[in-house]
Amino acid sequence: MSSQSVSAVFKLVKAPIYSHCFSQDKSLLAVTCKNDCLIYRFTNGSPQLVATLSNHDKTVTAVDISIHGRIVTCSQDRNAYVWEPLSDGTYKPTLVLLRINRAATCVSWAPSGYKFAVGSSARIIAVCYYEQENNWWVSKHIKKPIKSTVGCLSWHSNGVLLASGGTDGYMRIFSGFVKGLDSKDAVAGSPWGDKFPFGALVREFYHGSYIEDVEWRSSIESIGYVSHEGTLNVVDANNNHSQVNAPDGLPFNTLLWINDHEILCAGFSNHPVLFAEATGGWQFAKDLDKPASTDLSAHNTGNNNNNEDLDESEDVSATFGISALRKFKQLDLKGKVSTDVNETAHENTITQLLPYQETNGQVTQASACGLDGKVVIYNI
Amino acid sequence: MSDWRRIDIDAFDPESGRLTSKDIEPPYPSQVTLQELSTKISQLRSLASSGDAKSAVALAVSDPPYSGDESTKNEYFKVVLETLSNVRQADISGIVSGLTPIQQDVLVKYLYKGMSIPEGQKQGGILLAWFERVTQVAGVRPVSHFINDRNTV
């Protein structure tokens, strides 16, 4: 944990955190924990539990905080709640009827903070907005041509284009245009099309494996997405497609644009990985918070560097035998203090990356939550 | 009604649009036939008989007939298996390191396919030797690509 790339580690709960979100001024942190959403207030850099939002009766899958401080949570109980902060520090819940018959999987406020989108296993994206005259959150459905669970959503900064990905292997862009909320000026001159009626399929990209996360980079009209086969993909309005593999082959769960030419990804390898755009397309740049040299990784890199040695088959079987022996010796060490144990800040899969601090369109710090019940702040 | 969790609720909803195996097939522009593959197959055979195992393997795992039907894929697999089993054990590592990452991914797909059908299982030892070398060179990447890719061989 002496690593320079880790700024802070908060061990919050003894359960997986699927989703987290900081408020605009970073004073509040919301995390999902089992059937609840927990709200922490930061005083002098240490988190203190100030509220428990406990209206859901199944696992809460996602949480998001709008620019106005409204919290939205969605859950496997097929409902979403909007939590209005009150002056005494409590929250007033409003049930949003999503009209879906399967779990809600992800939720995202539009940049304006006046509507949000919920993805679900019912092959539906519900776009919800508040109707003053009825004092009610209305939910409108995007159905076609989604064929399977929607697992991730991202709004364009214009608040109209909505990118989604899921288990049917397609990354799709829909229009989430709501009359009375959005103006046509927001999408005037968009390279993605001319007309954006609500629910229209703007573009779709076939990928083939589960799409785990998707994120717009509105300034360059590009979309990044990560898939379960361990790849990062970047597409744009001209259908250019760039793909790069995870350095260790493990799948990514989440991505975050750092600037127009850098993306941070994280997932099953427990530490974030930075990719950068070079002349030949996107490439691996560096690992953040990677253990310097555990025996296992040293062994792996040894293998990669000595490909020439592998030509001799006797050699290979010899090193293979030794590595097996070494493995047993390592197992023998389990539970004992060993000097070369150098762990990552996250001890389990990372589930979500979000920007924590930004200057001039460049993310300088990112926050991450994971299955180990921690929230970690990384320096980029 | 104690078994209510097992009720197929989609069956009561005619508009459920449930996912079928056809839905997860990649959208291919056209279907490749065995005739179109015949030149490649004879090319593979001549490379193998001339002893150029390296080029033979590289060709075998390039541009596989993803869009073909089951029988086309099986015919092509037999040729791939022939090519792989003609390689001497000592040469495998060198050949695998000479492949591009995409070719390594395809190779692993054929190894898994081989282990799933009787023709391949008879050559199981050879397939496992290849598998061991590929994972030594490329790590788990080709395996996770195989598991997730809907382009099957």
TrEMBL record, chain A:
Q: Which domain of life is it from?
A: Eukaryota
Residue ranges, annotated region (Disordered): 293-312
What keywords are assigned to this protein? Actin-binding, Cytoplasm, Cytoskeleton, Repeat, WD repeat
SUPFAM superfamilies in the cross-refs: WD40 repeat-like
Q: Does the keyword Nuclease apply?
A: no
Q: Where in the cell is it found?
A: Cytoplasm, Cytoskeleton, Actin patch
Enumerate the WD repeat regions by residue range: 53-84
Q: Name one GO molecular function term.
A: actin filament binding
Statement: the UniProt record of this protein carries the keyword Cytoplasm:
yes
Gene Ontology biological process: Arp2/3 complex-mediated actin nucleation
InterPro entries, A to Z: ARPC1 (IPR017383), WD40/YVTN_repeat-like_dom_sf (IPR015943), WD40_repeat_dom_sf (IPR036322), WD40_rpt (IPR001680)
Q: Name one Pfam family in it.
A: WD40
Give the Gene3D superfamilies listed for this entry. Answer: YVTN repeat-like/Quinoprotein amine dehydrogenase
User: What's the stated role of this polypeptide?
Assistant: Functions as component of the Arp2/3 complex which is involved in regulation of actin polymerization and together with an activating nucleation-promoting factor (NPF) mediates the formation of branched actin networks.
Recorded family membership: Belongs to the WD repeat ARPC1 family.
Q: What name does UniProt use for this protein?
A: Actin-related protein 2/3 complex subunit
Automatic annotation (TrEMBL), chain B:
Principal location: cytoplasm
Output the Gene Ontology terms for molecular function: methyltransferase activity; nucleic acid binding
What compartments host this protein? Cytoplasm, Cytoskeleton
Query: Organism's domain of life?
Result: Eukaryota
Membrane-crossing residues? none
Q: Which InterPro entries match?
A: ARPC5, ARPC5_sf, DNA_methylase_N6_adenine_CS
Any one biological process term the GO annotation gives: Arp2/3 complex-mediated actin nucleation
Asked if the record carries the keyword Membrane, the reply is no
Record flagged with keyword DNA-binding: no
Stored Gene3D superfamilies? Actin-related protein 2/3 complex subunit 5 (1.25.40.190)
The UniProt keyword set, sorted, is: Cytoplasm, Cytoskeleton
- Output the Gene Ontology cellular-component terms: Arp2/3 protein complex
Q: What does this protein do?
A: Functions as a component of the Arp2/3 complex which is involved in regulation of actin polymerization and together with an activating nucleation-promoting factor (NPF) mediates the formation of branched actin networks.
Protein family per UniProt: Belongs to the ARPC5 family.
In its UniProt entry, what is this protein called? Actin-related protein 2/3 complex subunit 5
Q: Which organism is it from?
A: Maudiozyma saulgeensis
